[in-house]
Amino acid sequence: MSESINIWQLASEIKFWIAAAAENVKAHLHDDLQVETKSNRNDLVTNVDKLTEKHLVGEIRRAYPKARIVGEEGFGDQVDDLAGLVFFVDPIDGTMNFVKEKENFAIMIGAYLDGIGLVGVIMDVVAGNIFWGGPELGVYKNELALPKPQNLNLADGLLGVSGPLLRKDVRHMATAVGQSSGARIIGSAGIEFTKVLQGIENGYVSHLMPWDFAAGKVMAETLGLLVTDIDGNPLSMLSSKIVLIGTERTHAQIVALQQQD
Amino acid sequence: MSESINIWQLASEIKFWIAAAAENVKAHLHDDLQVETKSNRNDLVTNVDKLTEKHLVGEIRRAYPKARIVGEEGFGDQVDDLAGLVFFVDPIDGTMNFVKEKENFAIMIGAYLDGIGLVGVIMDVVAGNIFWGGPELGVYKNELALPKPQNLNLADGLLGVSGPLLRKDVRHMATAVGQSSGARIIGSAGIEFTKVLQGIENGYVSHLMPWDFAAGKVMAETLGLLVTDIDGNPLSMLSSKIVLIGTERTHAQIVALQQQD
Question: Where a domain ends, among A111, A145, A179?
Fold first, then answer.
């Protein structure tokens, strides 16, 4: 299958699909939403999440009929292995922000071949920026190539965290934040990934599902950042974990905190 | 003095000064900065903070020579009482963000007469939005009047907090965040105030100095929000406190948490 995939074309197609979906989401940003809860009262899904995933899944199936799709809202396939071409789709990452802030949410797609990341695309919908790339492409913010972030220590940069991990001090997050230049909580894994890709944050820690990190992981690793579980082990693309992304130094320092237990 | 002040003119003048200062800051956003620490390693000041305050203080003195000025970086006056016209100036609120993020920082001025807020102005420099207003003016985002935010409960909205208060669970912040729709940590009091003014966050809690809250307090109170210390007591414009801003309901719920002690 590898020979038949033009990765530059694939990246362009994913960007076409996401940009079109983003226009549609923005057009309905101030409509009354149908908001439902999922695993807990702060885990939301709206009619826009569902429609956007349906639309993106339709586009992927038309262009790559043999590919399988892992979608947050369940319009994809039941995927139990990573053979062949697999797309990970998050139609609205940061649904709470979509509902409350009307900004700071993302549409994300990651494309993997036999478990290896080919292309990741994250669109910050309201800011209008598309972050995209992969190991054979480089990483870009719109048309601008992003340089590798400086390999900063934990102490020399901001650390993105999820609210629950800091609030409950899970896995030494209070210590990690205390050693950093400060915590930031944005409420969207996709937007946090874009901050780390740009060197605005040194790292980010959150409990994530594969569709939350698939796109960001491809780009982050292309830029020399490390993306593992909080103990430094490789991630599975088929299960949820506490995910740590960071510069080499920040990553090592946060993993070391876990080893003191 | 009151009769001689045209409040609409005063608001316009403050906006002129801040918008001009913002242009200058943006022009130097990617220059090498001279960064120094103040009270601790994450309390920063740069040459741009100092130059911007000098410039704003000069403009205020030219237009209102009898007024007194409280400035974060010390170019104002030694002010020990609130008689007459007093300007509170924060040249760069969110200096860490200015240095690391190159966004999410604000220029703020609050004008008070005999301790009563007349005009508050907060400019989100990089987004280019000016929030301004006062009790006799209403509150505006650029030219758009902001409505009073809905009186939502803590459980029904996002809660802005400062990193250290959540990390160290000061004053039941972990409980408050746990009862909310989620924490957000932005790293700038000014930007947090603009979120609460717009109803994007239900409330915000942080340890603040008068220049951090002077502008926001005028606007928040004009919109029916409550701005007090964390125990619900009135703020002094001459000292630092843990400040709580919130909708009536959110404010009452966070104050109630303190009373359980």
Answer: A145
* A168 interaction partners in chain B (CB closer than 8 Å): 174
Q: What count of other Cβ atoms lies within 10 Å of the Cβ of residue A24?
A: 13
Q: Which of A96, A102, A166 sits opposite B166 (nearest CB)?
A: A166
Domain of A52 in residue numbering reads as 2-145
Average pLDDT over residues A103-132: 98
ipTM above 0.85, yes or no: yes
- Same domain flag for B14 and B48: yes
| CA of A189 vs chain B CAs: smallest distance (Å) | 13
Q: Do A174 and B184 touch (CB under 8 A)?
A: no
CA distances A11 to A15, A110, A143, B198, Å, are 6, 10, 13, 37
Interface test with A, best of B44, B102, B170, B181 (most A CBs within 10 A): B181
B167 CA: distance to closest CA in chain A (Å): 5
Same domain, B130 and B47: yes
DSSP labels for B241-260?
Answer: EEEEEE-HHHHHHHHHHHHT
pLDDT per residue as tens digits for the range B8-42: 999 999 999 999 999 999 999 999 999 999 999 99
Mind listing the pLDDT tens digit for each residue in A15-30?
A: 999 999 999 999 999 9
Look at residues B128, B145, B162 and tell me which one is the last residue of a structural domain. B145
Indicate the pLDDT class of residue B3, thresholds 50, 70 and 90: low
Structurally, how many domains does chain A consist of? 2
* B31 and B118 belong to one structural domain: yes
- The SS3 of residue B201 is strand
Are B79 and B61 in a shared domain?
Answer: yes
